[in-house]
Every structure is written in C-alpha cells, then in structure tokens.
Amino acid sequence: IQVGKNDLSDAAVKQADETIEKRELIKCDVLDGSGLTAKEAGEELAERLGAELVQVIGNRFVIYRASHRDDIERIRLVRG
Length: 80
Prior knowledge:
Blueprint: E1 2-3, H1 10-23, E2 25-30, H2 38-49, E3 52-57, E4 60-64
Parallel strand pairs: 1-2
Antiparallel strand pairs: 2-4, 3-4
C-alpha cells in the first residue's frame, strides 16, 4: 500500500482492508507528496481498519490485524 498526495483516501483504505484480511500483516510506504508522516499515516490507517501499528521505520510502516477467514495460515506475534 502506498500513501501519496491524497493521503489515506477511501480507495486506499478499502485496498488495505482487503489486503490485510488476506495477509494479516501489510507494509505501507508514505511517498514524498503526502502530508502525513509514516507514524501519522500508520496510526490513522490502523485506527480505521481496527488494526495495530507494529513498526515504523523511515517512510514505511507495518500494521497487523488478525483475519476473520478460516482458510489462511495465522500469524503469531512474538512480544518480548
């Protein structure tokens, strides 16, 4: 998922929702034209998706949400 000059449009959120439901974990890039930082974009997208922001590095962030589907392999988070 890329966050660009339109920031987090409804289309981007819909695409992220579909992807996170299949993968549980997605990595997103914030492009230079965006008015948001990676942390701001990650926090906003995570909130809109009911997900958790797990990492921010530079202009990238990663979010996680457990899938409701039964036909995918689950990701297990390790917390230390």
